[in-house]
Amino acid sequence: MKNIFITITLVIVSTFLSEHVFAQAKKPTIMIIPSSTWCEKNKFKKVFDNQGNKEEVDDYESAFNKSTELQQVITKISSFFRDRGYPAERMDQVIKDLKSQEAEDLLTTSKTGSTLSESPLDKLKKVAKTDIIVTIDWQIIENGPFLQVNYNSIGLDAYTNKQIADATKVGQPNAAASVPLLLETAVLANMDNLLASLQAHFDDLRLNGREIILEIRKFESFNGDLETEFDGKELNQIIENWVSKNTKGNSFSLKDATESIMNFNQVRIPFYDENGKALDARSWANDLRKYLKNTYKIDSKILTRGLGSARIIIGEK
Amino acid sequence: MKKLTRYIFICFSVIICISANAQNTSNDYLSTNYEVQFVKTGLQGTELFKVYSYGKNDDQAINNAKSDAIKAILFKGIPGSGTQNPLITDFSVIESKKDFFNSFFENNQFQQFISVSGDGTVEEKYKVGKRVKVAVIVSVQKDNLRKLLEASGIIRKLGLD
Predict the structure, then answer these.
(1) What is the pLDDT of residue A2?
(2) Cross-chain residue pair B41–A189, CB shorter than 8 Å
């Protein structure tokens, strides 16, 4: 009798937990960051070494630590998302996670081998695993005693960097309100339009799936190329068929195809796998890697850039 | 026969009279017989609009202005405001959720989400034929309105579900 009671309790608890966890996994995540223009205007830039080329990139850590206005605006916008049942990722926390991950990567570089070069934003997206990036920018315009806020917020799909939402407005001139109050009003006046366009994007994702990029390359050491036949079919045909079968509504575009490269874009992958776990470019491309290994005994390696771009290199692991 | 004709005439007169007095909140949710201008963003979740509406007299025109402002937010969108796009984009819900809209407009449930700004003073007033056209400033509790629509299944919550 006692065992039956325990079993029933365990079943109820596990059912509840799995439903709860599943429900949580279903929400796309959002992160709010300052735009490049804002970082430029406020001198939050740092030099990034992109494989020997020095590039100036946004210094989010410094911006978040030093700008009270930025913290205030991000906190305000976050409260809107929270109110709509969508807690946004905290940028400061993501930066901390990124730093500890970078420290770990330094220790394991020799084991992980080469990777595609990633910008700080790519790394931030990868650590946050965020689906949507909201960039914000504002400018205080002084006109005699009057102050005005020119506010601009843009929603980007973290996978494709495509703009999916925007809200822009120049506030009314005000001689009495403080800058923080003007900023708060600017956020208030723009949020609903931004959220409405985000919802339109979510509707598109729900119907058509998430968009990613897939590139196929081959190692020099690979005995053959993408036109080599396996079981009577060319390798590029095998890959294209797999992509067709595993995209939502067979939606993809094969941009380039030669004996050594294949470039797919506008690849629409399902949002979740059959277990309700969110799919990204890596996990989806990993299924292709496994398929090639299990069916044709072809080794391959996956490299990723951010969440929405995967490269499979055929021939070695 | 004369009695019957008189009876029919009285009935028609009563019907016409009722129709003329009815507020502009019947089933014609998509009508555009009004103008709404964005004024400013108010306290969190509210927005102020200037609404031009018609009525047989001032009171009726003011009441129509309130329901018209709500209809504009729900079905039209208001340029320059935080609701440039209407809250409802799938108009099929007007038929599929008919009971909700009937109750919302006919039973004056919408009044919870709107108030005439200040002491209800008419900003502008024009005589248009036998009707009056008034302009009033109204304050709409947009966030609460959206929450009601979400809870009633009229619009979806933010996200994929």
Answers:
(1) 61
(2) yes
- Look at residue A17 and tell me if it is in a domain: no
pLDDT (tens digit per residue) in A304-315: 877 788 999 998
> In this structure, is residue A12 part of a structural domain?
no
Domain match, A32 and A84 both = yes
Q: What is the pLDDT of residue A112?
A: 40
How many domains does chain A fold into? 2
B76 touches chain A (CB under 8 A): no
How does pLDDT run across A96-150, given as a tens digit for each residue?
777 777 766 655 544 444 455 567 777 777 777 788 899 999 999 998 899 999 9
Residues 6+ apart with CB under 8 A from B21: B56, B60
3-class secondary structure, B134: strand
Residues A197 and A225 in one domain: no
Q: Quote the minimal CA–CA distance from B128 to chain A in Å.
A: 34
Query: Which chain B residues have a beta carbon less than 8 Å from that of A28?
Result: 159-160
Interval A292-305 mean pLDDT: 91
Spans of chain B, pLDDT less than 50: 16-26
Q: Which of chain A's residues have a Cβ under 8 Å away from the Cβ of B156?
A: 199
pLDDT of residue B27: 53
Flag whether residue B142 sits within 8 Å of chain A, measured between CB atoms.
yes
Residues whose CB falls within 8 Å of the CB of residue B131, separated by 6 or more in sequence, listed in order: B54, B55, B56, B61
Query: Do A148 and A271 share a domain, yes or no?
Result: no
* Other residues' Cβ atoms within 10 Å of the Cβ of residue B119: 5
